[in-house]
């Protein structure tokens, strides 16, 4: 592994950081969260036009930039620093790779160019609250989460030449505003039980979308109800959907790990800047040994998480599935950095007006949505056979 970054990768980071610094400051961020979409469409257009962010990892034949997961992860590190609310994760990290992996030639040619330009946003709708399970991050995604042949989840049935869907999905990232839904649904009954992915326009008849109040307001979520909705099967009926979801989950974990590192780095940076200015007993509180030790511990944990996240991004192209482990370490580092930011900012760290609570909520929200940390590690240990023959409490 080459630990250095290319000139192109450094340029992506620099340009994105400059753009977000100008267009996604604290005031712009709060204003975007109060909009119906939960993000600034103008910023999303700028990210698409200037950097090709939605199509960063989409092949050039479909109008994308044709970069690797590493570039995608480095971009996520910068969006994480700013806590930039956007359809980036749902569209470029979850939906686009699944369309590329499973879609027919016609589906890829129709959808990916529009995704690459930012004209079409998309998201993955997993039944219930099973996103982490569907992506095989915290357990085997055997298909029970999609409905398992019983009531609940999302059920699919054939209707002539097409399909009809009925059910509900919670915690759908940007589900209230996405132009396209990739819905995971169960079909086949007991004898031919299987999970398939379907394409559903966000404004299709029978689709009811409700934006949810989430702990982390910068990560918009929605409840999506499907009431006998007409849908198009993604790819072929015999495709390995569960395998594609697991691979997408490993990629998403690596990208999310870098995003968490960016958020932790910014939280630490803000805290260090504050303790250098805040005075107590006639001297900056950052000069006190106890404060130095606490921030040094955060720095060491952050650097370890950064190394793990970069390695996970690199390893996706080398069939090494370490994304969930890197995500666990990065989420832990973010939670520590955010907690110290709240504490060391003193009274203002607890106020609604300060940004410290947004970083803490990002850490807690991601832990609930993609974790928790101990389950990410336990599942990785099970996959590696680390505790084979032993009983481990989770």
TrEMBL record:
Signal peptide (from-to): none
Domain Acyl-CoA dehydrogenase/oxidase C-terminal: 254-377
Gene3D superfamilies reported for this sequence: Acyl-CoA dehydrogenase/oxidase, N-terminal domain, Butyryl-CoA Dehydrogenase, subunit A, domain 2, Butyryl-CoA Dehydrogenase, subunit A, domain 3
Pfam families linked to this entry: Acyl-CoA_dh_1 (PF00441), Acyl-CoA_dh_N (PF02771)
Keyword terms of this UniProt record: FAD, Flavoprotein, Oxidoreductase
Coiled coil stretches, renumbered: none
Cofactors required: FAD
Domain Acyl-CoA dehydrogenase/oxidase N-terminal: 6-118
Taxonomy, superkingdom: Bacteria
PANTHER family: ACYL-COA DEHYDROGENASE (PTHR43884), ACYL-COA DEHYDROGENASE FADE28 (PTHR43884:SF20)
Family from the record: Belongs to the acyl-CoA dehydrogenase family.
Name by which UniProt lists this protein: Acyl-CoA/acyl-ACP dehydrogenase
């Amino acid at each position: 592994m080459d630990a250095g970054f290319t000139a192109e990768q450094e340029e992506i980071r620099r340009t994105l950081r400059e753009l977000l610094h100008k267009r996604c400051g604290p005031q712009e961020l709060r204003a975007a969260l109060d909009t119906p979409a939960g993000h600034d469409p103008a910023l999303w257009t700028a990210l698409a036009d200037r950097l090709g962010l939605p199509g960063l990892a989409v092949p050039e034949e479909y109008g994308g930039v044709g970069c690797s997961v590493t570039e995608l992860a480095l971009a996520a590190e910068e969006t994480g620093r700013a806590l930039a609310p956007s359809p980036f994760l749902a569209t470029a990290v979850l939906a686009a790779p699944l369309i590329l992996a499973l879609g027919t030639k016609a589906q890829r040619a129709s959808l990916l160019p529009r995704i690459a330009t930012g004209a079409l946003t998309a998201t993955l709708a997993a039944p219930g609250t099973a996103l982490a399970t569907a992506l095989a991050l915290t357990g085997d995604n055997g298909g029970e989460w999609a409905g398992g042949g019983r009531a609940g989840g999302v059920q699919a049935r054939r209707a002539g030449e097409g399909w009809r869907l009925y059910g509900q999905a919670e915690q759908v990232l940007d589900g209230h505003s996405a132009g396209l839904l990739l819905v995971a649904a169960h079909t086949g009954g007991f004898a031919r039980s299987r999970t398939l992915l379907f394409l559903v326009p966000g404004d299709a008849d029978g689709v009811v979308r409700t934006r949810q109040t989430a702990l982390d307001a910068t990560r918009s979520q929605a409840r999506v109800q499907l009431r006998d909705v007409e849908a198009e099967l993604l790819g072929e009926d015999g495709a390995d959907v569960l395998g594609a979801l697991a691979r997408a989950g490993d990629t998403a974990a690596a990208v999310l790990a870098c995003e968490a590192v960016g958020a932790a780095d910014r939280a630490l940076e803000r805290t260090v800047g504050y303790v250098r200015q805040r005075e107590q007993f006639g001297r900056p509180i950052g000069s006190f040994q106890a404060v130095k030790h606490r921030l040094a511990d955060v720095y060491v944990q952050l650097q370890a998480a950064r190394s793990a996240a970069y390695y996970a991004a690199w390893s996706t192209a080398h069939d090494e599935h370490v994304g969930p482990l890197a995500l666990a370490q990065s989420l832990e580092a973010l939670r520590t950095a955010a907690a110290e930011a709240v504490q060391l900012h003193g009274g203002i760290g607890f106020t609604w007006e300060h940004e410290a609570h947004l970083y803490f909520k990002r850490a807690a929200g991601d832990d609930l949505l993609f974790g928790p940390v101990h389950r990410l590690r336990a599942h990785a240990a099970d996959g590696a056979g680390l505790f084979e023959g032993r009983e481990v409490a989770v």
